Amino acid sequence: MEALLKQTCPLETYEVIVIDDGSKDKTGEIASGYPIRYYRKENGGPASARNMGVREAAAEIILFTDADCVVTGSWIEEMLRPFEDPEVSAVKGAYRTNQRQLTARFAQVEFEERFAMLRNAPSIDMIDTYAAAFRKAVFNSAGGFDESFPVANNEDTDLSYKLSAAGHKMVFNGSAIVYHLNHPASVRRYGSIKFQRGYWRMVVYKRYPDKMIKDTYTPQSLKIQILTLFGGVFLLALSALVHTALYASLLLFILFLLSTARFAAFAFKADKAIGILSPFFIALRASSIGLGVLYYFINGHRVKGRL
User: Fold this and answer.
1) What distance in Å separates the CA atoms of residue 252 and residue 236, rounded to the nearest whole number?
2) Which residue among 92, 137, 164, 194 sits deepest, i.e. has the most Cβ atoms within 10 Å of its Cβ?
3) Any stretches that span the bilayer, and where are they (predicted)?
């Protein structure tokens, strides 16, 4: 909140709204020490909390950031800049982190790869809530975030795909930066997050199957890596019965390694250690997301009676 209240644009030109989604910590006590608007509600999930914030907001443009992010001093100014184009309906900013753990550094390079893709897109189809801006009228016309999402996972993807399908122009501004305090610092947590991403992305893909083929945010190499890794493991297991399956599995593993080369080269320029270790992390990512996808197909798409 201190970062939000120390922006390059005048304080009287914007308002800060905090929605307390039924927390059990000192959110309310801490928020009371700042010149912001604070609302507490019964716990209903992040989508309902964000929608409440929009209902209470007076401005025509709505900005979101997450509770584990610290915005830079020019963040609001940069998030608003693309709206000078009247055709722009939504804006996405960029993540950075100061974390030094290897897993967190890999996660940051992942984002950097995707940011490089987004910079080349005339219109994007992914607006993440850590640094998101919408014209309020457009946000409301789409119905806001789907409140049936019980957790903070892919509800922003769902809204983004909906806006994209409606033909709205959305853009990326890499100068609108927030620092994330919570990139996954351990292999276990990273794998868990990617497993959940795989599951919830399938929930969204069911609604927008064309995005499973291609969107502006997901590298096509990721899909190849999931298929070759799981195909290789399957054929390796099958080789106990069919000897020739061993050679096919080795071929798929080689193709998997080849598919990691471009990212490894990209990562090596930014962080030599991550470049060297990237095949391991990519294998972890592919296996975790793939298992999340399998979990979706095995268990259906109902979680806690919702969706």
Assistant:
1) 10
2) 92
3) 222-241, 247-268, 280-298
What does the DSSP 8-state code read for residue 258? Answer: H
- Quick one: how far is CA 190 from the chain centroid? 13
pLDDT at 72 over 50: yes
Q: Which two tokens stand for residue 74?
A: 């020019």
Q: How do beta strands 132-135 and 88-96 pair?
A: antiparallel
- Structure tokens that stand for 51 in this block: 């929608």
Domain ranges in the chain are 11-185, 220-299
Of the candidate CATH numbers 3.20.20.10, 3.90.550.10, 1.10.1410.10, 3.50.50.60, the domain formed by 11-185 belongs to 3.90.550.10
- Tokens 């189809």 locate to 125
| pLDDT tens-digit map of 278-298 | 999 999 999 999 999 999 998
Strands 17-20 and 37-40: parallel
Q: What confidence score (pLDDT) does residue 301 get?
A: 58
